[in-house]
Amino acid sequence: MEQNKYKMADLFAGGGGFHLAANKVGGIEVTYACEYNKLISRAYNLNFGIDSFCDMYSLTDDYIRSLGEFDIVTAGFPCQPFSSTGSKMGFDDEKNGRAFMALLNFIKISSPKTFVLENVDGLTRTHKFRETFSFIIKSLEGLGYRVKWKVLRSKDFGNAQFRSRVYIVGIRGSDGFEFPIGTDSSKLIEDVLFPVSSLKMEDFFTQEHFDACDFIMRDYYHAGIIDKERTTGSFRWVWHSVQSFLPVLTTLCGDKFKGCVFQDRRILKEWDMDDYLSKGYNDKLFRKLTFMEQAAVQGYDGYNWGDFSSDLKSKIIGNSITVAVGEAVIREVVKCL
After folding, report:
1. Which CATH number do you get for residue 157?
2. CB atoms within 10 A of CB 242
3. Which of 26, 42, 132, 298 has the most beta carbons within 10 angstroms of its beta carbon?
4. Which residues are catalytic?
């Protein structure tokens, strides 16, 4: 059994995307985790045996010092203030605008050897947040770290979704870190679909529901259509076959009106189609990914979901890093330790 060489703190931990990534790298022990949502922290505890429930904003300097030393600090700090689907208020966001300052203080007091931070790519490319992003980088550099950042796409790491996210890495006393290139071929929707035997009719749209989706998309989400590998918008509806790339999974991936919709023609050969149609399901064979398919796409295969609600599970998945990307970044970080 591999001995753990490095200690890690997992902040704004969510359901544990960074923890899963660290486990895949190996040799890393998560000795502290912090997640302010009590129900999500229950999921973290269920899977990793760590009570992560805490409030980052209330951590005192003395408490942070008492946690001991860390080699790595990871944090997917709240993206809503900077997200195209969030408040877009940046540091002025009343609920989550203070998150980076709390994170900055944790890094300052605990002084880890490295950190890996993740957020929405809009933080780097949106004119409104140009000064915000510059402040973030300069603040981290001011703590004595060599800081590098890069927007990484999940699709470049053998994943079936686009999901562009900015990763910010700081190394103390070393300039040798380089981001992973990520040259693996993307998977397609058809590569991540579960067997037809695992599907239920309710996974498909009824015609009535499908018509409602069409109405909502036409009026509100027309900019969200994807065409092959070209993407626009944040909520993406797919009206073609299963050979297309997945869109970004969002915190609303469980919403009945939002998400990736595609034709699953496999049921034509395996189901009683007369029974299917007689129950009001659409003849276009449109459905969304099931939750477990979404979880697998994000790298949460084998995760214990307990008895948590579908809304909470979708929130965990939608807010998480893609585990494969986190794993690739942490592997490069470990080389600098």
Report:
1. 3.40.50.150
2. 17
3. 298
4. 79
Length of the chain as a residue count:
337
Structure tokens at 73: 């600090």
- 190 within some domain: no
pLDDT at 322: 94
Same domain, 247 and 320: no
Distance (Å, whole) CA 230 – CA 238? 12
**pLDDT tens digits for range 49-102:** 999 999 999 999 999 999 999 999 999 987 555 544 444 454 555 455 578 889
* Domain endpoint, select from 252, 267, 289: 289
**Per-residue model confidence (pLDDT) at position 130:** 79
Give 123-191 as a DSSP string: HHH-GGGHHHHHHHHHHHHTTT-EEEEEEEEGGGBT-SB--EEEEEEEESS----------BPPP-HHH
The rounded distance, in Å, linking the Cα atoms of 233 and 219 is: 14
The count of domains in the chain is: 2
**Predicted local distance difference test score (pLDDT) of residue 261:** 67
